[in-house]
Amino acid sequence: MRGLRVAVPKGAIFDDALAALESAGMPVGVLREDGRRLLYRAEGAEFIVSRPSDVPVFVEHGAADVGIVGKDVLDEQQPNVVELRDLGTGACRMILAAPRAKVDEVRRSIDHAEVVRVATKFPNIARRYFEGMGRQAEIIALHGSIELAPLVGLADAVVDLTATGTTLRENDLDIMDDISSSTARLIANRGSYRLRHHEVAALVEAMQREGERVG
Amino acid sequence: MREKTPRKFSTTPGTRDVLPPESTRLLDAQAKVLERFRLHGFREVITPALEYSEVIEEPKLRDSAFKLFNPDNQMLLLRPEVTTPVARLVAQRLRNSPPPYKLSYSLPVYRRTGVGRGQSAEFRQAGVEAVGSASPGEDAATIALLVDVLRTLGLRPGTDFALVLGQAAFYRGYLRGAAPDAASEVLAALADKDLVRVDEVSRTLRREVAAIVREIPRLVGPAADGSVMERAARYAGENMEATAALENLGRILEHLQAIGPLDGVMLDFGLIGRHDYYTGAVYEVYASGLGFTVANGGRYDNLLRRFGEPMPATGFAISLERLISVLPEEEPAPLVVLVGASVEATRTAAGLRDSGVPVLHLAEDLPPAQAAEYARSVDAGWVCYPAPDGVKLAAADGGEAEILPAEAVAGRVIS
């Protein structure tokens, strides 16, 4: 039987994900050698590298047994996977923000239950947030450069992810509310979690030990 | 260039036409499944595809259902599952005959959600419901039937599939006793399979309780390994509800062991069922190489109350399309294409069929090459022409034709 297949996200949490896997004894060296491949085979494991938002898709379908992905992506997609462990890395916040000059106006609109136009990469999270307050929002789903939307009048506010707040500051956006916080998570396919429980549990445990040693 | 087909002539998203050989495999598998169901005394029922929307209460199922309105402006659903309609049927139609009612079905169900996520809007479920008995022997019997079905279809327990068994009342009972305030939040997190959230909530609890709250949903292991049950018993401690649930699970395992080894049965105390209506033993079947469940089921003792006939019940549903996707490849059934427009050809075809040979009679005078091409297109292994002293038979994938008496064809083509 092949080793566990692990989905690793490109981008911001790639290095943290590798470190977490490596600390648990996974042979991640191959991933550092050549940055262009999509599928890596190593002794006792396979790795696939994908966009963060695709990691839950690979895992839900069983194309990968386990994966590492931010809680923000899980909140947005609500995939049917087992969420096993909080890696504690890649911490960031989901926030509501608006241009500094328009913060009061947007707050007033929300208070008066007027419809606010919100640009976001996370339409489901944004919709749930506004519904949870009993408010309505017109959600404009974008794929990148969310901060641009309020500057050019496409939206009144944004729902976006921020780690340090630098991009927000650079674009004169003020945080109005914290929606949720996110860290990297280890997820598993439901079938793999049971059929290969030995291997998956060993991985979780190794990460746990390492997490406690560091933390 | 071919003209583009108008969009409305394609099938709607999430649905498809099923063609041979897949359709053949699907219906063959269905026939074998229903045969096993009958051998265990389950009799088929057919419920309507349309139900009043009030029939289905489970929020996830209601959300996932296709909705429409009848002429009286009543909201209807295309059934998103069959367990609830069968519960309705039992409560309405069978109350005058003695329980338990052992019913089976194989029907298409319809769901809007999951389309675009590798799931279909229409798929077939074959399942059984045993209504009116709370005996753990009944849970074991349905589990054994499910394993029997999978084995009959050529899947080996432990190698090709695993049946994951949990007890929804165990963790619920433990939480009600040890952490009543946090119970609903923990259970909601576990229903979402979010063990991280379970850990977070557990931090508000007393240390010993918190550790057990974290451990129970992670307690997974082979049923043949007695230590899993022993650990669960330690966690249950003095808790009456959890202990009763564990005893129930122990009884089910005893019944299963009486039939055969527990190969391929995994215990998972974190499995509480995807629908709120599960109250006791719950189970899911996973096949190697498939990320989704092939079958799932369990005990639902509160569902019938809604229909005015409180009765315990247990049952399962198999997803037939997923099931055939993991079945071993099978040779296509033997078929002979008999070619000829003459009356003699018609007579020969009938004669061959009488001797037990499946025959597709092509009432045209086609030359052998074209006939062979046609035969391959319908997965027929043989081409045959009437001949003066019997028939001229050739394999569809080429090879010499030979003349042989009609009576000898059966021996040649049916292995």
Total of DSSP H or I helical runs spanning 4+ residues of chain A: 10
pLDDT < 50 runs, ≥5 residues of chain B: none
H-E string of chain A? EHHEEHEHEEHEHEHEHEEHH
Low-confidence stretches of chain A: none
CATH class identity of the largest domain in chain A: Alpha Beta
- Largest protein interface, residues of each chain: A-B, 25 and 25 residues
> How many helices of chain B in DSSP terms?
14
Major sheet: arrangement of strands of chain B: 1-5-6-12-11-10-7-9-8
Architecture (CATH level 2) name of the largest domain in chain A: 3-Layer(aba) Sandwich
Kindly state the number of beta strands of chain A: 11
Strand order of the largest sheet of chain A: 2-3-1-4-11-5
Classify the secondary structure makeup of chain A into a structural class: alpha/beta
Total domain modules of chain A: 2
End-to-end gap of chain B: 46 Å
What is the number of E strands of chain B? 17
Largest sheet of chain A: 6 strands, mixed
Which outline of chain A best applies?
Answer: elongated
Q: Can you tell me the CATH topology of the largest domain in chain B?
A: BirA Bifunctional Protein, domain 2
CATH topology of the largest domain in chain A: D-Maltodextrin-Binding Protein, domain 2
Overview of this protein structure:
The complex is a heterodimer of chains A (215) and B (415). By secondary structure, chain A is an alpha/beta fold. Chain A is built from ten helices and eleven strands. In chain A, the strands form two sheets. A six-stranded mixed sheet of chain A has the order 2-3-1-4-11-5. Chain A starts with a strand and ends with a helix. Chain B is α+β, with helices and mostly antiparallel strands and 415 residues long. Chain B contains 14 helices and 17 strands. The interface between A and B is medium-sized, with 25 and 25 residues.
Q: How would you summarize what this structure contains?
A:
The complex is a heterodimer of chains A (about 220) and B (about 425). Chain A is of the alpha/beta class and about 220 residues long.
